[in-house]
Amino acid sequence: MDKDEFIQTLASSIKDSIERNYRNLVFIQRKDSFELVREIIKLYVGINENASIIYGFHPWIKEAKERMRRLREELEEYRFEDADYSNSEWFMGNSYDVVVMDLMDNFQPNNIGRMVELCRGGGLVILYTDDLKENKLFRNTILRNGKVSSLYEDRFLRKLREHEGIFLAESEGYFVNPFKGKLDESPERKAEARNAVQEVHDLCKTVDQDIALEGLYFIMSSGKRSVSITAPRGRGKSAVAGLFLASLASEERKKPLKIFVTSPSIYGSSQIFEFMVRGLENLGIEYSLKKNSNVISSISTEYVKVSYIPPDAAYSEDGDILIVDEAASLGIAYIDMITRTWNKTIMITTVHGYEGSSKAFLKYLKKMAENRKLKLKNIVMEYPLRYAKGDPIERWLYDTLLLDAEPEVPEGDFDILYYEEIPKDVLFADDEKLRQAYGIMVTAHYRNNPDDLMIMADGVHHSLRGLSSSCKYVSVVQLSEEGGLDDAKLDLAINGGTFDGDLIPDRVIKHVRIKDFGRLKGWRIVRIATVQELQNKGLGSEILRMTVNEAEDKGLDWVGSSFMGDPKVLTFWVKNGFIPVHVSPKRNEKLGDFPVVVIKPISKEASKMVNIASYVLKEKLLNTLHDIYFNMSPEIARILISGTRAHRDVDVDPIYLDKVLAFVKGTSPYESSADGIHMLVMKYFWDSKREWSVMPDEEEFLIGKVIQGKPWGNVSAVLSTNRSQVTEGIYTAIAEILNRYYHLSIDSPLGVMISQHGDIYERMHLG
Known about the structure:
Layout: H1 3-20, E1 24-29, H2 33-47, E2 52-57, H3 62-74, E3 79-84, E4 96-102, H4 109-116, E5 119-129, H5 137-141, H6 151-162, E6 166-170, E7 173-177, H7 198-201, H8 207-215, E8 225-231, H9 237-248, E9 257-262, H10 270-283, E10 288-292, E11 295-300, E12 304-308, E13 321-325, H11 332-341, E14 344-350, H12 359-372, E15 375-380, H13 392-401, E16 418-422, H14 424-427, H15 431-444, H16 450-458, E17 462-469, E18 472-483, H17 487-494, H18 503-512, E19 521-530, H19 539-553, E20 558-564, H20 567-575, E21 579-583, E22 595-601, H21 604-624, H22 634-644, H23 654-665, H24 670-686, H25 696-707, H26 712-718, H27 723-742, H28 760-763
Parallel strand pairs: 1-5, 1-6, 2-3, 2-4, 4-5, 8-14, 8-15, 9-12, 9-13, 13-14, 19-20
Antiparallel strand pairs: 6-7, 10-11, 11-12, 16-17, 17-18, 18-19, 20-22, 21-22
Helix pairs in contact: 1-2, 6-13, 8-9, 9-10, 20-22, 21-22, 22-25, 23-24, 23-27, 25-27, 26-27
């Protein structure tokens, strides 16, 4: 096809898309790509004179900035906005007729996932580059010893040819595949304003939004309640939460509602505040607002005050309702904590979005609600706001980025399972196998994002292992080769420098200060996952065991992993013999957890170093849980401390033992005996040789109160209990520990006689 026919066909498709409310996409891969971009945009604005345009690029690259400026000058009569890829989330609530993505300097799946969804129905997405594989920033970060694969790019180009609504302009020629399919019409809206006021319903655009708006009032009934809103991107779920808040502001109250909103970033929650403003203005309600970085951070009315808080701050804030936007991306441990500490929570999360699938998130919510007898309502939204359902570009995007990958559950028994290396070239050429393998990872670990798939595909140091039954994978492992560092990298790491890859050696060198560990070679398990329906059957432990055996056969020194500290995940690794060696001193602000590193040593050299690292970690935790790890969950701290296996003999002097005994006998309050109790508890947690333990919840009470020094109310809130249970648990644990070590009980006499303990003076170094 020649250029004239290409342009003519594109023009016809643009007119059809405007009429039927779907999108088209043009991909340009030519040396003169920028000139063709200009021509195609002029074609579009000639059809749609009121077009709005957004241009994605890297502003710190001189040539990229110059290209943007040239285009802006030519289109000055139109609404033209430029978007720095690194800040593209700021624009997520907006929509445009033309979305242009400059891929000359960088090709990164996360950017594709965000920017494409800014295009509205009748619009056009334009991706342009000179070569998808040459001199690209993100691709260069995947390099290993100067090598990188192109499996991801090859599949990306193949998917462009498989889907309708896509037009290709490449050096070899032009290719068109206009959309000829049918689109689903949205059901007729029949809004019934039972709870929310009509003026707010008038701002809803789909029947899904009307239903969600009414459904959110479930949270206002008495008792502990939670509502989740799940939807693919672009369904207006954050917007409807903002409209709900506006509706609440129309209701008279004796005491104003105090509502907090949190999300991984303040920009992520901007839609909630913006639509609350729209609702208030439609209702004619007066309000005041504050902004932070040009984004609304709080709105106050007579009856409602809504404020943004960072995820960490939500642990200690006190309010009537907490709204968590993009909840799945904050992690299970975070959701577990806030649903324990807050009486009413609204959780909004994306399914099949660039944040990844929320299937695991929804499964967790349901199980959590059942276990805690929490009243939970799930609202599902399906119909898109920006374009018609059945839009061809949404189909292409989901297929290409595997946003909707869902694994099948193999049938039959699992007596015979096959462990194998999965050849990546075969996997990325077979969509069915790829969707099965990657779908297992996505649905088990909903924090996956499109970049992860490219790293897996193109990283020559990344490999895959699978456990299969009936020709279907049931468990998969993604491995990254690490270690074997030269002197230059060892010196760089020990002096605080960074480099891509080798995450575990980097952490051990920096935090344990053992340079030699970087010379050892190992596998970092990037992801390990099992089909959700087959979890808790030992399949994860089995593929992990086989992976370690293979590493040993290959002469590797260690196998390890790094992940966000979640109790269930951490327990899995410790149960399978992996030893914690590092916990980040900073909580991940976006994900809400402390990153953890665990290692299973194989060689003798690795065993020595891992034992040292685990000892250093245990000492660091026990010495700083009151400080840098004050906000760590006592449950996580308990698993880490017990998992290190490090041992130290701790002796408690008779004076402090007598203080503890006075507490046990009830003649001394906790506060007066706290120093002795602290010493006894330190002895208990340092002792890894004992063959007995107090109850897990009692250990968590001891960590929270005695070691972290949390106030009584904070301990009970964090552990979802009450003060009396915490007090009783600590008393019971201390009484048992005192008796086990020193045979002292409630019947033992009080008082320390110097004549009986003549060495106290010398032991305290007073002589």
